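Lab notebook, bench 4. The sequencing result for the construct came back, and we need a structural model before the next group meeting so we can plan mutations. Quick request posted to the team channel:

Model the 3D structure of this chain.
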Amino acid sequence: MSSNYDLAFKDYADAAAMCGRLVNEDARDTKWLERLARIYRRFESVLERAARERSEPLDKAVEQYRNEVMARERLVERDKASAPWKQQLQESKERLQNAMASVAPASNKPIPADQPPQQ
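Done. Here's the predicted structure in token form:
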């Protein structure tokens, strides 16, 4: 089971890196940024599930939640009238807050919401 998660982690990290490069190559093309946000969403879900199964901290999952929120904020900045992107951003922020609430009691160290994600 562990090796399946480890392989998935590597695949998600590779996909995020590739999409990140494509986003940087053409900052006007929102399709890659949207795909990147979806990759972060899937990655955070797998990381959280693995951490919970292994009774490990959710720190890596929280990092991906932050990455997703940042990507979705960039999408909303590009099209402030997009109701779906605004809704997805709100949902991403809620998932981040829920994950942070799970982390804080275990470590007794609150994680600031404005802490930048690590890339």
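Helices lie at 2-25, 30-54, 59-78, 83-107.
Will bring this to the meeting.
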